[in-house]
Amino acid sequence: MSALRIVGLTGHLTLPSRTQWLADHIVGRVAAATGGEGVIYSVMDYGADLGRTFERKHACAQLEAVLRDIETCDVLVAVTPVYKGGYAGLFKHMIDLVDMKLLAGRPVIAAATGYSERHGGVVDHLMRPLFAFFGADVVPSGIFAGKADIDEQHQMVASLEAAVAAAVQQAARRSAMARAG
Ligand SMILES: Cc1cc2nc3c(=O)[nH]c(=O)nc-3n(C[C@H](O)[C@H](O)[C@H](O)COP(=O)(O)O)c2cc1C
User: Fold this and answer.
1) Which one of 87, 94, 152, 157 has the lowest number of neighbouring Cβ atoms within 10 Å?
2) Read out DSSP for 85-109?
3) Residue 21: which of 33, 7, 8, 5 has the closest Cα?
4) What's the predicted TM-score (pTM) here?
């Protein structure tokens, strides 16, 4: 049987990036928990192509490959920075190009980074409904990392560590059940 495929999608537009680090960390943890293989796509790497792709049929081969990987993964780890109170625009644009039938039942970990704890609700109020639209299986534990939650050495506060551990366990259980049929 092939290894589980864990796909991360990140919405940050600059480097270095806390969003990128958090996505790397979560994808790595899910891969370790499942024996799966992880890959991460950052929208900034596809910015120009992505921005001018208004319809899926016009996606270039590189972008099409990313979209196919998102649509066929075993676990999707979606991590966006909070921009102006919501998810990053290019992150949403990438998701807008995903086939509306192909994320159904797929385990999704929804996560965001932001400056202010006041915007932690983006995960439950924007990310969760976005993936619920697709009928995806968004794990109960949402992850939000505010400015003080990850330090310069990438140490996470206990509450963030607990949220990551719970989400990883929930996604691993769901992907194992999906494999078992
Ligand atoms: C254009 C822009 C808008 C932002 N808007 C918000 C916001 O509304 N709320 C918030 O908490 N942080 C906001 N931030 C801060 C980022 O969400 C935060 O620094 C995030 O962790 C950046 O992730 P990165 O390191 O991956 O770029 C904004 C940052 C930028 C660049």
Assistant:
1) 152
2) TEE-HHHHHHHHTS-TTTTTT-EEE
3) 8
4) 0.98
